[in-house]
Amino acid sequence: MDLSLSFAAQLKSSANDLLPEMKEDLEQYIQQLIREKDTHWAVSGSLKKLIAKYAKAYMLSSTAKFYIKCNPEDIIVSALRANRVKDLPNEDDLTATDTLKSAVSRTVVQSRSTVKDHIMSTVRGTSKTSQLPADERDLGTVAQSLLGGLKDVPLSLALMYRLTLMRNVADNNPDMNTRDFWPTVDSEMAALLGVSQEGIKTQQHVIADFQLTYELDVKKYGKHRVSPTNIGSSTYQWKTFVKTVNTLAGNATIIDSTEKKAERKRKRRINDTDARRTRSSAAANEGSDGEEDTTEDGVPGASGDNENKEEE
After folding, report:
1. Tens digits of per-residue pLDDT, 101-118?
2. Domain map of the chain by residue range?
3. 3-class DSSP state for residue 63?
């Protein structure tokens, strides 16, 4: 039964005309329906940890092509579903799925910020941190620091190539607004991969361009102190979740700005609907003794507009 909360409030007001026992039964029934209607899917603690792990694996992927213009939250949600992670909402539950995407988006923003801040600290001091010592600026040490305790993601030469490009953006744009960092990285990646050009750029050409940028970085910041893992070896054992993330990251494409605007409008509509429902729920519960507020804190799609706006 799709019970309108405003209608529930009307039922409550008209319950005064019923017999006491009928009035009590009706009020209990209304409260049960309201609780069921206001019960939202929430991200569990264990799922939050997995989301953080997947987001970090994406940002430090050996195959990542883009970091902000490809809606990485959708890629990570797809990876979670492909690996049949527990506690995920049903795909047909659109409100819960938006809640999931919102949680993933926030985590991706945090992960991007961590990577960007560390890269920046190897180039120059910032308002957040001073410049790192010279012996902590080589690519191997930078990659190792960013990976932290995440041993499942390999410290590969391909990862170093990507970190080189990020640092090259920071080096060449000292006055850049921090909000422009990741869009610029994505644009540079598109140019290097040949995505922004007509025709197909050969794999050999792409590797040669990566290698040139890498060699210039080594010349300025020193040779890596940590040797990269040979992920091309037939003996290397990939973790399933890392392999899934890498596959999806490697197939990512830049999302057209028109599509992004449409997605943001859809999320705003969901926000508005949930806000109205929360207000209606509060009105319906007004005057009820001992009733607990069952409205969840998380609003689906709340951070959907953070794309290209967050100060990462």
Report:
1. 999 999 999 999 999 999
2. 5-37+259-298, 57-255
3. coil
